[in-house]
Every structure is written in C-alpha cells, then in structure tokens.
Amino acid sequence: MRYLINFSYDGSNFFGYQKQVDKRTVQGELEKVLFKLANKKISVSASGRTDALVHALNQYAHFDLDINITSEKLKKALNSILPSDIYIKKVEEVTCDFHARFNVKAKEYIYKINVDEYNPIERNYIYQYNKELDIEKMRKAIIFFEGVHNFKSFTKSNSEIDDYEREIYETRIDVIDNIVTIYFKGNGFLRYMVRNMVGCLIEVGQGKRDIKDILNILELKDRTKAGMIAPACGLYLMNVYY
Amino acid sequence: MRYLINFSYDGSNFFGYQKQVDKRTVQGELEKVLFKLANKKISVSASGRTDALVHALNQYAHFDLDINITSEKLKKALNSILPSDIYIKKVEEVTCDFHARFNVKAKEYIYKINVDEYNPIERNYIYQYNKELDIEKMRKAIIFFEGVHNFKSFTKSNSEIDDYEREIYETRIDVIDNIVTIYFKGNGFLRYMVRNMVGCLIEVGQGKRDIKDILNILELKDRTKAGMIAPACGLYLMNVYY
C-alpha cells in the first residue's frame, strides 16, 4: 500500500530534509520510525528537499508499507514515536503510481523577516534583520519574478541541472507587527532559489539595488550577480499542491 | 553607577532566571558577561525570577558598575558577548536607591495556548493543548481573579511566605488564529501563580469546572484544590512597570 503523508517540522535541529550519514535529518528520522513499525527499511520520497534550518508547515512524502493498518492509526503510531520537532498532520492512501515529487503541481514558500529589534524568542524562526526596509520598493520589485523565467542567477552557482526554467504564479509581501512575510507560489523552485530571490529583494529594500535590477539579473543567468543569500531560518515550505 | 537593563530571553535552554550552581541560567549568563566587562563579580538583581522554560519579552534588572561607559555603549558591549537567547533592549542609568525588585509597581504576564493541531515550530513557545476550549466560559471565569485576593491556592504548595495577598488589576483572553492568549496585570505574582490560574481556567474551558469554582478555590486557600499547573513553555513575562 502506498501512503502519502502531510507533515510539518521545525528545521532548527536538522541538517536539512535529505538523509545524510551520521547527521540528524528529517528523512532519516522518518525512515528510522518506519523501520520500527515495519521491521524493514522503508524509503521515504518527499516533494523535494529543504535545506538545513529551513522549516516546513506542510511538507509531503510517500512510502510503501505492507502492514495492515488504517491511515488514522498509522498517523497516531508515527506521531507517538517521532521526535517532537516533526509532526504528521495527515496520512492518506494513494494509488501506487502516485509520486510525491513527480506529481507536484505547485509549491508555496514564505520567508519571514523581523524589521524591528532583535527578538531572541524568534531567532531560529524569523530572519533577524532588525533594520528598516522599503517595503513599497520591494513590492514593486517582486513582481518581476512572476511568470516564466530562467532562474540560473538565483540558484546554487555550481548546480548542474538541465533546466533552469521555472514559473512563478504568484508573489506577495505582507507586513504585520514588524514581521515582513514574503510569499512565492510557483511550479517548482531550484536549490536556494527562494533565499536568493529574498536576498535580492532585501538589497532592493535597503536601497542598494534598483527595482529593475531583478530583470537584469534574471537576464544575466549568472549567480554572482544576484547578491546575498537570505539566512535559512526565515524560510518555510508552506504548501505543496498535487 | 547603577544601571537598569530591559532585556528579553528565550527560556527554552535555561534552568530559569535565577543563578544555580552548574546550571545554565539567565542571571548566570548576565553575571558572566559583566565579569568579563568589569573584571570583577557584579551582582544582577532582577524584578523577580522566572522558572525554567519561561520566556521574557521585557524583564528588568539593575546592577552597579564603575567603569566609564555610556548606556548605549554598554548595551552594545553586553549584546556583543551575550548568547543569542538573551538580548538587552535598553540600558539606562538610575539613581542608587533604585531597586529592580522593590520598586516594581505592576507586572504583566501572558500565557499562550494552541487549540489547533500540534505545531512543532512553536512547541517551546506555546502550550500545545491541541483541543477546543470554551473561551466564553473562560472569559467569565477569569474575571473572578481580578481585585485583591489571597492566592495561597494558586502558588507553590510548600511555599513559606508571609503574605499571599496580591491584587490583579486587569485580565483578558484574546483568540487570534487558534492561539489563545491569556493576559494578567497585577501588583505582583506568587511562584507558579500565573500557571496555576491558567491551569484552572483550562479546566473551566474543558468543562471540568464551573465558572464560580474560581471563587471557591480562592476562598479555600489550599493548593490541592486548584488542579493542574499549565506547562512553563506557554508563559511570558510581558512587562514590568516602575
């Protein structure tokens, strides 16, 4: 039976989603728990990885498990043995041709920035920028990311992938109580892409860059032109659509 | 010169505010940093202690320091060597008869409860109750705490203090996005008093207790009558008034 799980995690104490030898990862913890339940190795396939310190409000993954258990009981069993920084929100049975990564239609990410003074309570959950940003300029700039673009300037500089083209469907910048939340929805995101776009937007908000620089940088297809990468702790995988 | 500091901390990784041998405490960290600056032991006196895992948004403390430094530079110096879970928001010079504990006029505490599903990201910052509560009943019940009362039923059972009388000036329960925030302002709070009042209110919200039980429990002056103590992680010292 193939199961799709919807889960959240606090990325603070993980070396990212993807399994690594001798490092605490989300996939590693999930597979450890499934091993206990199934008494054999069960591979977990997520919608995509998240980097170290990045959080997820709604991540999805599938796995195959041939023990006789209802979805609701499987959810309870998993949560009862998972560490407190991962939580399974929903378990559902899916057909065996469903794939948590290949079937993704869209993803949403949010990035949070504190523009007020340093707050120790949210130091692992919001980028402590602690200075003013010109939000109106950032709102004008972010629109240039919308649509179909080659995002080579906004991904890992030495990444070797075939296709740098992605479509961003929707963007938004909200400000509530000195917390700036930057929202992106798209058909897919390259490695570091959200954090690099946010870094560039912060430079616009600081006045270091012009609004239209976004378009030029996209055109240049060169990572060295896009400036700073925003810290991982402000990033949340918000949702995945199938 | 006597200095008053206004500071915030994330209580998650502290054994409370007050110094203890071989344990990481907020006072211990502050005194360690002041020792580095002054090259001698400097005692820090706070408005009061907070227990292990309890957070502070605005705590206050005073200390005497005879090095020649402006308040603004002292703030920067302290923050540059303090660990990331403590932050000095303000430093000001006060007269030498000022005392951070004895001069307190009022204190505010808030307590946060998540009534939606478990959220790993806020597991150290909001009590994960994860079930419904009857907020209207709790709003009626909390009013009974207002005014002058003997709070012996709501403090540590074996506490030996002379005076259990405190005045609560104001209470409020707000609900935003499935987070219930319970607010108390008073002239002072006994040990565990807020968490015990919140525990009792939760039992009212669960339907386990009647609204008027609050008055009866206050009358009984007996800790065993007041029920559960709410977990420390939901509690925040919000403000101190002088």
Oligomer: homodimer
Biggest β-sheet description of chain A = 10 strands, mixed
Which shape of chain A, going by the Cα principal axes? globular
**What CATH first level of the largest domain in chain A would be assigned?**
Alpha Beta
Provide the residue-averaged pLDDT of chain A: 96
Q: How many strand units of chain A?
A: 10
Q: Hey, which two chains have the biggest interface?
A: A-B, 18 and 18 residues
Number of domains of chain A: 2
Q: Give me the CATH superfamily of the largest domain in chain A.
A: Pseudouridine synthase I, catalytic domain, C-terminal subdomain
CATH topology of the largest domain in chain A: Alpha-Beta Plaits
Percent of residues in helices of chain A:
10-25%
The CATH architecture category of the largest domain in chain A equals 2-Layer Sandwich
Q: Helices and strands of chain A: which structural class?
A: alpha+beta
Distance between the termini of chain A: 19 Å
Cα Rg of chain A: 19 Å
